[in-house]
Write a structure and sequence with these properties.
By secondary structure, the protein is an alpha+beta fold. Helices cover about 10% and strands about 30% of the residues. Strand 18 and strand 19 form a beta hairpin.
């Protein structure tokens, strides 16, 4: 009986020893659970482009434009975009030229650019901020007032189409001509020309005037009412300063703060490995194992399958379901991906597409991120600074957020022109935001 008890004790000790060995690595490093959070911290922007126009063509300094003078500005815009602008009718209290609140469509239903003379889509508007006086002789109008914002407040505070209450307002096409030219597949140049002459504005005191146009603002948008809403009072955002005094600086600053490309993060691949280059090789062409599909179209499946066969891969997987969601999808600003894995050794690499691009992806360098320090302690904290924007070299880059062959705008996957280049840190003619303004990656070793 004693021998049986001793045998049972030995078996229990062996079993306990086996359980402990499963919680350590061959080098006696304990298994650590890592949790990785990939958060989209980008700003949501209302407009894709905007600016002030204030310097006449051929001039080096800001000024109003008289007969024969013009303002010009250029921009890029994707299909679905519209143009709005505002410029003051200078011989008035608060009248301004602008398209309808919906703006001017930059592409037709076939996806072709709308170019040519668009003056017919421009109207003269009353800002509803100051009582109207006869155009050309009012003492509270910019050419004659003692200072800005001098007129009496209008009882009708709503923005509306200007009416010819004094019988001397010229038609729109007698004062302004607006044309749009194409500069590239997604590029535009707008010209606002003063076509008035010294006889355009006739006044009751027998004088006549040309009609100067003042500096203004332009904005590229997708939704209605970027500058004003017809039938409603102006918001306090700077259009009053344009309509009354020809000063676009305040509204220009407001628009600038809301202008940019909203960044999106796509599903990706992670891998725990012991040697470098599990996902790509810096300076070498993509080897066709799935990086192209991830970088161009946000599809991680092929790359995840290919890394499974690598000898130095300890574990790997896909992150594709936004936190709090039940189905896979991209992550907009404010959202995140999260994944967990166990490790006793090695490095962490991962890659996720920068969606507003042709073939750019976010990833650490080819060695990845060391999971344990020399004393065996697990890494913890913000590791965003260890990431870079990489170019897969598989598709020719277009302007970020605008290009027609980028995932949000292309008609199908793999639509862009082949580049046949090497994987590298992005280095092209375009500007990209700092990574800290796009993504935050944190890791917790538990």
């Amino acid at each position: 009986m004693k021998q049986k008890i001793l045998t049972l004790v030995m078996l229990l000790l062996v079993a306990a020893g086996c359980e402990k060995s499963n919680s350590t690595s061959p080098n006696n490093q304990e298994i650590t659970m890592f949790q990785v959070n990939i958060e989209n911290v980008a700003q949501v922007y209302t407009y894709t482009a905007s600016d002030v126009f204030n310097t006449p063509v051929g001039s080096s300094s800001p000024a109003p434009i008289g007969p024969g003078d013009a303002y010009e500005f250029s921009f890029s815009a994707a299909p679905g975009s519209r143009l709005s602008f505002a410029t003051m009718f200078v011989h008035s209290n608060d009248l301004f030229f602008a398209p309808a609140q919906s703006g001017i469509e930059l592409y037709n239903s076939m996806g072709n650019q709308n170019i040519g003379d668009v003056t017919s889509q421009v109207s003269l508007w009353d800002a509803g901020t100051e009582v109207n006086q006869e155009p050309g002789i009012g003492v509270d109008q910019a050419p004659r007032q003692s200072g800005p914002n001098n007129g009496a407040s209008d009882a009708n505070m709503n923005v509306r189409l200007a009416i010819n209450e004094f019988g001397n307002l010229p038609s729109v096409h007698e004062v302004i001509q607006v044309t749009i030219q194409s500069t590239s597949q997604t590029g535009f140049r707008v010209r606002i020309e003063n076509v008035s002459d010294v006889m355009t504005l006739q006044t009751s005191d027998g004088s006549s005037h040309s009609v100067p146009l003042a500096p203004g603002v332009w904005v590229i948008h997708g939704m209605d009412n970027p500058l004003f809403t017809s039938g409603m009072p102006l918001s306090d955002d700077g259009l009053e300063a344009i309509a009354e005094d020809g000063n676009p600086s305040f509204l220009g600053e407001v628009l600038e703060a809301e202008t940019g490309i909203t960044q999106i993060i796509a599903p990706g691949v992670w891998v725990n490995h012991t040697n470098d280059n599990p996902l790509f090789v810096d300076g070498m062409m993509d080897n066709g194992d799935g990086l192209e599909a991830l970088a161009e179209d946000g599809s991680p499946d092929a790359l995840n399958s290919s890394v499974m066969s690598l000898m130095d891969v300890l574990s790997n997987g896909i992150f594709n379901t936004p936190t709090g969601n039940s189905s896979p999808g991209p992550v907009p600003p404010g959202g995140s991906y999260s994944f967990e894995f166990e490790a006793t050794d090695g490095y962490l690499s991962f890659a996720t597409m920068l969606v507003q691009s042709n073939d750019l992806f976010l990833s650490p360098n080819t060695m990845g991120i060391q999971l344990f320090n020399n004393s065996g302690s697990a890494i913890n904290g913000d590791i965003t600074h260890l990431l870079s924007i990489w170019d897969a070299g598989t598709e020719v880059n277009e302007e970020p957020g605008i290009g027609l062959n980028q995932a949000p705008r292309q008609s199908g996957p793999d639509m862009g022109s082949d580049e046949n280049g090497n994987v590298r840190l992005v280095n092209d003619m375009y500007n990209y935001p700092d990574l800290s303004n796009i993504i935050r990656v944190t890791i917790l070793g538990m």
